[in-house]
Amino acid sequence: MIIVLKLHATEQQIEHVIQRVEGMGLRAHLSRGTYRTIIGVIGDEAKTQVAPLEAIPGVAQVVPILPPFKLASIEAQPEPTVVEVAGVKIGGGHLGMIAGPCAVESAERMDAIAAAVKAAGANILRGGAFKPRTSPYAYQGMGEEGLKILRDTGDRYGMPVVTEVMDPRRVELVYRYTDMFQIGARNMQNFNLLTEVGQTRKPVLLKRGMSATVKDLLMSAEYILSEGNANVVLCERGIKSFDNTARNLFDVAAVPLVRTMSHLPIIVDPSHATGRPDLIPACALAGLAAGADGVHIEVHNCPEEALSDGPQALLPEQYADLADQMRRLAELLGKAISQPAGAV
């Protein structure tokens, strides 16, 4: 950490800053330049987080050397993390192909969709049992009954399942049925929820908030990692923009940007990013080309009857065509789509 002092900082103020730094068990190295005086702080920067150093008289700026998301940073772990979801690997050259309906609606419909996406090459089945909706009058999900249907369907087709958890009080319930927690965009900064799933050690799919920066996303991941759960997969799912042509702005640049900042795998969700089936294939392929570790796509066999987000879902045959393109692109990129052990 570097402490930059104000232009006219007094000797008394400089000495006070040094005393404060040394009082925290750190070493201070004073360097006087022509125009600025700086103090280099040597030691564990975490000790300075509880002390508002910028509030000390004479201090102009405090510049951290390490990012605040220490555990998620690439400095902490240069090699990419590989997250394993019931045998399916994501990261380090392994692609997670997550597909399924927005919401679990019935056992029959879930079975039909799972059969289709499995045949197309998807390796993780998704479906929401608890739905965070903008309107309180919209479909809120089937709850535990939906979790049971999702679990049974995943087991039938040999696919791990991922579903959203919205409430810290329901983490234990969702834990019993899912192979991977999903933290949705609206809950990306629900820090109590992040702490709870961090204590489970179960893989977590963490979606970027609608108005969150990449740094915000990584800070949220830090909450999970700091509790001891290293199995975090990030997800770019679009952010709010002034342009309403698509549902959100698909920030494909976030994928290579995360690569420069973190060792965690990152996937893309072009369904929520665009809200338009005609844009999903191009954005899915763009995400993979940019270095994504997988793609999350909503699939429904009758979108006009869907109880949640039907207009943004691909038909099974559309997904099959896209999955074939993604598989061929993955081969060009030297990546593999893994399947769980014993999958048929």
Overview features:
344 residues; 19% strand; Alpha-Beta Plaits; 2 domains; 15 strands; four-stranded antiparallel β-sheet; alpha/beta; single chain; TIM Barrel
Explain the layout of strands and helices.
Blueprint: E1 2-5, H1 11-23, E2 27-32, E3 37-42, E4 59-63, E5 83-85, E6 88-90, E7 94-100, H2 107-120, E8 124-126, H3 144-156, E9 161-164, H4 171-177, E10 180-183, H5 191-198, E11 204-207, H6 214-226, E12 232-236, H7 254-261, E13 266-268, H8 270-274, H9 280-289, E14 294-298, H10 316-332, E15 336-337
Parallel strand pairs: 7-8, 7-14, 7-15, 8-9, 9-10, 10-11, 11-12, 12-13
Antiparallel strand pairs: 1-3, 1-4, 2-3, 5-6
Helix pairs in contact: 2-3, 2-10, 5-6, 9-10
Protein model, in words:
This protein has 344 residues and is of the alpha/beta class. The protein folds into 2 domains: 2-63, Phospho-2-dehydro-3-deoxyheptonate aldolase, domain 1 (Alpha-Beta Plaits); 83-337, Aldolase class I (TIM Barrel), CATH 3.20.20. 31% of the residues lie in helices and 19% in strands. The chain has 10 helices and 15 strands. The strands form 3 sheets. Strands 7, 8, 9, 10, 11, 12, 13, 14 and 15 form a 9-stranded parallel sheet that branches. Strands 2-3-1-4 form a 4-stranded antiparallel sheet, with helices on one face. A two-stranded antiparallel sheet has the order 5-6. The mean pLDDT is 92.
